[in-house]
Write a structure and sequence with these properties.
- The structure is a single chain.
- By secondary structure, this protein is mainly alpha-helical.
- It has two domains: 1-32; 44-163.
- It has five helices and no strands.
- Helix 2 (52-62) packs antiparallel against helix 5 (150-163) and helix 4 (111-143) packs antiparallel against helix 5 (150-163).
- The longest helix is centred in the N-terminal third of the chain and has 39 residues, at 4-42.
Amino acid sequence: MKSNFLKRLEMTLGVLFLLANLSCATASHEKSEESKVDEKISQQHPSAEPGEMAIQGALTFSDMPGITEQQKLDLLKLNKETADEAHSLGMQIRQAKMTLFQTLSTPNYKKSEVAILKKKIVKLDKKRLDVMFHTLDKVEKIIGKSDVNKEKLYEHIFLHQEQNR
């Protein structure tokens, strides 16, 4: 005959086993649902004019006094790379937001889909900020502690990031 302790232990282990199985099933369901949300996002048509900010950056760097031709070339290359990445992230953010608003406007929407979309938007926006900070680090490496008017340079970078939101 089993003691009360062993009976409780078996019951507790059984409950833990059931909870573990439910957790795995829930995680699998969330992944499947996340894939569906990804598909919805990819079907959105973002609106933005690519290249405008890259052109403005090129103009800013081309007439900037106090930097060498090589620094200008390096800044132009960095500007192009950053503009492309910021544009891509901006499009993805707008697509996810449009999907979020469409999801919220449907009757009986799934709260789990809304939660996934919110997480994706936050993740993309964080990535956009990371790009900006990484770009600032690269600018500092390119121009160093020169007498360049950094205010104009950083103003351009900040405006570039904001307009690609």
